[in-house]
């Protein structure tokens, strides 16, 4: 019993309230007790009649014996007994009140905890809603950027359609493409077949026949439209001034920012004009020297931004600049340029929040000018540029990549660009042409000149087994990859070797994959990246895609969707992150590798100016599938070209020094990375 006096007081209240004078309480005994507890006790002690009536009522059948006995003690004639009973009742009541207060406090605490949990849930939903809003905003921004890119490409295409020189360049490239080998090629022909299959006429032969002239005459006529002959007075040049001169302006003893100035007579041409990796606001270091005089053309070896990213800035400054590349490179470059503009704008917005100003290297309109001024040049077809003649040859590496043969008079320079000799899923290896052999100078990339790569098949097999292991364990694999080339190669490997594993392509890697399909459609080797188990990532996949492979940009974790995926995947012990390519010393990818090797529990990354601490529980490894020739591959190229001298570019100085010594021991004369002139 919580209050020993409660039954007696309630009974007394009922007796008192039976009086007509207290009818205002409406017979509510409990309320009367609450309002007049002390008064009721005094009345019971002073009024014998009230004690008698109250005790009689407590003795009715059904009343609790304890209640009756305690009431008799409280109403005992002896004042001392009554006082003790009242004190006992007060103590019991006080304890009961404390217990009741404790129960109320516990109920309030429970209610408070429940409200806090509801608040946490509401805050979580709010954060998720904000994240969804940001995801959809990002998707909208990407859609807008893709639309802008398509608008730029459309405007450039219209401009090219109106430009006879540009359209003639495209026509020349199409006519001079090598036709695919017939099904009955002599090397595979059935010897019992009575009649051999004849090679179909090439597009050039068909066009020449329709025009009623020979193929060579048709090519000369079209080339004259692309590069009109100079007046005879300007053609008088001293022979020694036609000797080739070569000056590396970027990417000489560093990787990226590639730019090579080639001069002869009055003609000045750049081979590549790339941006410095990791910073799209840095042009080739020596580009100012190229701009000190007239610049007639840029020959682009391939569409990676560290080789072509500065071209729009040149086109913006030099409206008549010719931009020459393979058809595939010509079609892939605008997307790479647009990505550079996007990154420049992001950095400009970030800088403005800190009160500083960063000016982009070129506006979006420059992409339209550069795209419209591009000339397609097929492999193996000479193209005259003033006093120079250039010819492109397959370099492997990525789709559309080319090496360049440059001739002036009796001098020849061969520039490999980025080059590889092994077959990939997306492109074959290099093919050195006759025009390149015994050149005066071989300018050779040296990215991997200190490495001996494992067999390509073994590397692919190791990657496939690692991905299969993580997938079987219920995890996700993130492979940060360069948007152009590496990402598509990885997707094709996954589609071919792991058709049961879901694969997402995210960010710019997905856009370029679609471009690969468009560029190669109708050609001899059409590529199909999407389909079956390979799909484009969608908003929401970051939370919903819980098992499979994600291939996303950027390859060095310097931003892009790969950064967001890494923040989700790295804390998961069931998952993995496999880096697939070169990591610059200052890149987040290199810092991740160093942190894992050093046993660090977390990685601190910069997320648009805000530091994020990411726990490191996932498996992290380098699974490098290089698209560059290694030491042995580069030696094979040097042997095949057999140039009078070899210059190394696009590599690290200390490694180049060691490799030069190897070349010398192999019988090749070398020259330091720097200005060179034929003699």
List the helices and strands and how they pair.
Blueprint: H1 6-17, H2 29-46, H3 48-58, H4 65-74, H5 79-162, H6 164-175, H7 203-211, H8 215-226, E1 245-250, E2 259-264, E3 267-273, H9 287-290, E4 297-299, H10 305-308, H11 311-317, E5 322-325, H12 327-353, H13 365-372, E6 374-376, E7 383-385, E8 388-394, E9 402-408, E10 411-415, E11 441-445, H14 456-472, E12 476-480, H15 486-497, E13 503-506, H16 508-520, E14 534-536, H17 541-544, E15 548-552, H18 561-569, E16 576-579, H19 588-597, E17 602-607, E18 610-615, E19 619-622, H20 631-641, E20 645-649, H21 653-665, E21 670-671, E22 676-677
Parallel strand pairs: 3-4, 4-5, 5-6, 10-11, 11-20, 12-15, 12-16, 13-14, 13-15, 16-19, 20-21
Antiparallel strand pairs: 1-2, 1-22, 2-3, 7-8, 8-9, 9-10, 17-18
Helix pairs in contact: 1-2, 1-3, 5-12, 5-13, 6-8, 7-8, 11-13, 12-13, 12-16
Structure report:
The protein has 679 residues and is of the alpha/beta class. The chain has four domains: 6-75, no CATH class; 163-176 and 202-230, no CATH class; 243-445 and 636-677, Ribonuclease Z/Hydroxyacylglutathione hydrolase-like (Metallo-beta-lactamase, Chain A, 4-Layer Sandwich), CATH 3.60.15.10; 456-622, Rossmann fold, CATH 3.40.50.10890. It contains 21 helices and 22 strands. Strands 6-5-4-3-2-1-22 form a seven-stranded mixed β-sheet. It has a seven-stranded mixed β-sheet with strand order 7-8-9-10-11-20-21, covered by helices on one side. A hairpin with a 2-residue loop joins β7 and β8. α1 crosses α3, α6 (164-175) packs antiparallel against α8 and α12 packs antiparallel against α16. The chain is elongated and about 140 Å long. The protein starts with 5 loop residues before the first helix and ends with a strand.
């Amino acid at each position: 019993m919580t209050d020993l006096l409660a039954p007696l007081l309630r009974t007394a209240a009922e007796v008192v309230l039976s009086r007509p004078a207290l009818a205002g309480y409406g017979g509510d005994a409990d309320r009367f007790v609450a309002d007049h507890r002390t008064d009721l006790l005094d009345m019971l002690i002073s009024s014998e009649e009230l004690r008698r009536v109250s005790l009689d009522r407590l003795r009715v059948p059904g009343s609790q014996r304890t209640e009756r006995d305690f009431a008799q003690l409280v109403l005992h004639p002896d004042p001392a007994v009554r006082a003790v009973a009242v004190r006992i009742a007060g103590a019991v009541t006080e304890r009961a009140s404390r217990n009741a207060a404790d129960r109320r406090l516990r109920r309030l605490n429970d209610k408070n905890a429940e409200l806090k949990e509801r608040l946490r849930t509401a805050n979580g939903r709010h954060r998720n809603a904000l994240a969804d809003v940001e995801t959809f905003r990002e998707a909208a921004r990407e859609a807008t950027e893709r639309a802008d890119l398509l608008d730029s490409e459309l405007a450039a295409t219209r401009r090219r359609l109106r430009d006879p020189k540009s359209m003639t360049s495209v026509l020349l490239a199409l006519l001079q493409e090598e036709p695919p080998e017939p099904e009955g090629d002599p090397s595979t022909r059935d010897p019992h077949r009575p009649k051999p299959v004849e090679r179909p006429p090439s597009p050039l032969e068909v066009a020449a026949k329709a025009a009623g002239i020979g193929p060579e005459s048709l090519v000369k006529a079209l080339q004259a439209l692309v590069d009109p002959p100079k007046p005879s007075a300007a053609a008088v040049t001293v022979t020694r001034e036609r000797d080739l001169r070569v000056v590396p302006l970027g990417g000489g003893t560093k990787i990226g920012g590639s730019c090579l100035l080639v001069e002869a007579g009055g003609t000045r041409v750049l081979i590549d004009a790339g941006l410095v990796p990791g910073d799209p606001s840095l042009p080739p270091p020596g580009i100012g020297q190229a701009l000190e005089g007239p610049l007639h053309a840029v020959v682009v070896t391939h569409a990676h931004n560290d080789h072509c990213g500065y071209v729009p800035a040149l086109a913006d400054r030099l409206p008549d600049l010719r931009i020459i590349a393979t058809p595939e490179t010509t079609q892939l470059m605008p997307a790479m340029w647009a990505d550079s503009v996007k990154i420049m704008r992001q950095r400009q917005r970030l800088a403005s929040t800190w009160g500083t100003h960063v000016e982009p290297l070129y506006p979006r309109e420059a992409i339209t000018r550069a795209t419209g001024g591009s000339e397609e040049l097929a492999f193996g077809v000479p193209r005259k540029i003033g006093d120079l003649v250039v010819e492109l040859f397959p370099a492997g590496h990525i789709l559309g990549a080319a090496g360049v043969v440059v001739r002036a008079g009796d001098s020849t320079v061969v520039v490999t660009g980025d080059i590889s000799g092994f077959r990939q899923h997306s492109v074959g290896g290099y093919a050195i042409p006759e025009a390149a052999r015994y050149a005066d100078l071989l300018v050779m990339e040296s990215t991997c000149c200190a490495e001996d790569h494992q067999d390509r098949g073994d590397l692919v097999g190791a990657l496939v087994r690692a991905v299969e292991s993580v997938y079987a364990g219920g995890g996700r694999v993130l492979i940060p990859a360069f948007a152009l080339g590496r990402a598509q190669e990885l997707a094709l490997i996954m589609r071919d070797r792991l058709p049961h594993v879901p694969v997402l392509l995210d960010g710019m890697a997905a856009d370029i994959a679609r471009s690969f399909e468009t560029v190669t459609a109708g050609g001899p080797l059409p590529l199909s990246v999407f389909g079956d188990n390979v799909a484009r990532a969608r908003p929401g996949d970051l939370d919903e895609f819980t098992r499979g492979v994600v291939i996303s940009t950027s390859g060095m974790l310097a931003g892009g969707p790969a950064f967001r995926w890494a923040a989700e995947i790295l804390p998961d012990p069931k998952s993995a992150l496999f880096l697939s390519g070169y990591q610059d010393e200052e890149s987040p990818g290199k810092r991740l590798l160093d942190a894992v090797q050093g046993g660090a529990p977390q990685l601190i990354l910069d997320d648009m100016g805000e530091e994020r601490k990411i726990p490191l529980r996932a498996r992290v490894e380098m699974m490098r599938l290089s698209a560059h020739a290694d030491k042995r591959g580069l030696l094979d190229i040097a042997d095949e070209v057999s140039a009078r001298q070899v210059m190394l570019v696009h590599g690290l100085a200390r490694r180049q020094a060691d490799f030069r010594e190897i070349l010398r021991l192999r019988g090749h004369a070398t020259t330091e990375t720097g200005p060179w002139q034929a003699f």
